[in-house]
Amino acid sequence: MNIKDSAKIMALLEAGYAPHYNKLTADNKSDIVKLWASLFANCDYTLVEGAVKAYIVNDKLGFPPTPGQIIENIKRLTSSQGENMTDEEAWNLIKKAISNGNYNAEEEFDNLPKILQRVVGSPQMIKNYAMYTPKEMQYVKKDIMDSYRNAKRQEEFKMLNDIAGIESSDMRVEELLFYNEE
What we know:
This protein has 182 residues and is mostly helical. It contains eleven helices and no strands. The C terminus is likely disordered. The two termini are 33 Å apart.
């Protein structure tokens, strides 16, 4: 998103929150446009616009959004199916696929959300799990739920890295967060 796109976002916010933005000076508005352009420089305008509109539609308090709130909306809008499930919901989908895995492992695997496909690995694993004993499945469940949590976390860090414009060769958001905790 560039300055021109950021100005369009500002116009959208001004229309949605006129009482708030009418109080700002032209310099204040210019500073906000520059800030948003820099924060969302690596984002597609239509994605930011959609996130802002989603915020406006769902806002019940009457306050304009912060960039962090828009980033949260972007995460919700761009998260592929399966990334907002609980660990237990993810396990139940995989367990259902496993229950039919002896005969239709390929089809069951293909029906899983992409994130769960990455967690399981392959249709062959679905077929293998279908032959496990109930005791072995307890360990599989724990491993799959752990893997799902890690996959969700990696997706979140990837999206934050993309939004922040951090290249894979640069320090990643995950590393920045760890570094700042010390």
